[in-house]
Amino acid sequence: GAVVSQHPSWVICKSGTSVKIECRSLDFQATTMFWYRQFPKQSLMLMATSNEGSKATYEQGVEKDKFLINHASLTLSTLTVTSAHPEDSSFYICSASGLAGVGQYFGPGTRLTVL
Amino acid sequence: GDSVTQMEGPVTLSEEAFLTINCTYTATGYPSLFWYVQYPGEGLQLLLKATKADDKGSNKGFEATYRKETTSFHLEKGSVQVSDSAVYFCALREGGSEKLVFGKGTKLTVNP
Description:
The complex is a heterodimer. Chain A is mainly β. In chain A, 0% of the residues lie in helices and 52% in strands. In chain A, strand 7 and strand 8 (76-81) form a beta hairpin. Chain A starts with a strand and ends with a strand. The interface between A and B is medium-sized, with 21 and 17 residues.
């Protein structure tokens, strides 16, 4: 089946620094990638949708200048948390989809802790 | 807006017990419904889905029936195994959209 990887799997950083998370589709071309955020005991909340080569579409309430998303190729999307603060600590999950109707394939997630 | 409500966990069962995880939804249109499973250390995987009323999705012994009259999509398995221990997410997707709306997840632990 389709495999999606994320790197790093966990990261700890100091408040005020920026952190980049990578999401790769390993064996298929992902025309669309999704970024989710999950708080403990909460559901996955969609942050943004990105299509290769175009700007990401952010969900209401998500700061696009804080959560920078780049989808420069059909196999890679990155999420950069800029000037991270403790309240940004969370579990970030990406998913990728190729042909329409096939569905989304999820990465294993990245645990971000901001001190 | 659309939403999914699933039973709070955690759920702990003995091997071979019957499993039910309740899921109800609210949606403006006619959504497709999904159950995803997340094993420890892995990404979410699609377990089963149903795209219209009265459809039954099934996979690996799990079943769920799309009940429009009760807006429900409860997950069931007749005899759980230790290997079924995971977190289960109910989700919906409105027609014409790729966006998924998830429930909070239910952690299942099956003891030998």
